[in-house]
Sequence to fold (207 residues):
Amino acid sequence: MSRKKGKLIVISGPSGTGKGTVCAQLLEDKMNDFSVSMTTRSPREGEVHGREYYFVTREEFERNIEAGNFLEHATVFDNLYGTPKDMVVNRLERGHNVILDIDVQGGLQVKKAMPEAVLIFILPPSLSELRKRLEGRGTEDAEKVEKRLGEALNEIKLIGEYDYYLVNNDIDEAVALARSIIAAESARVPEAVKPIIREYENENTEK
Fold:
């Protein structure tokens, strides 16, 4: 069989659900690559162009917008961030899956730009458990925790736009389920089945 294209896997979920940890473990699999975003902000100490982000000028970023080369993009604190389509497609064509850790609104933009993307939503066991996790960080005051919970509920209301969901009650189980989803999607029969059939027909003719 010829090499299959990889899958674009979008991982979303409220802050505190552990989506970053899930993504990090998925990236331990050699056929999974991380989607590196492009940004107009300056690199921080220790950051490397092409590893954490592709650091570009605003002019270059806007040229990419005009060329339609973003699966999604947004403005955050006066800086632009986006997912370059050409770089994602290049990795997919090489047979690698691409993991994209992004918020729900960005995930929906990606789905619109690339309908074949697989969207996975990560849920907390409950809002009360999410509250405990956010408070346990010790990085946000009570007001900010309440704001996070409100944002989480708004994101959860959009879960119907996603293909799969998993509840992160146990990180090992959550990662195992995510891997199972990716494996199943990789074996999905594509809409265009003729190339697959032709490959076997050609092999039979050559005998």
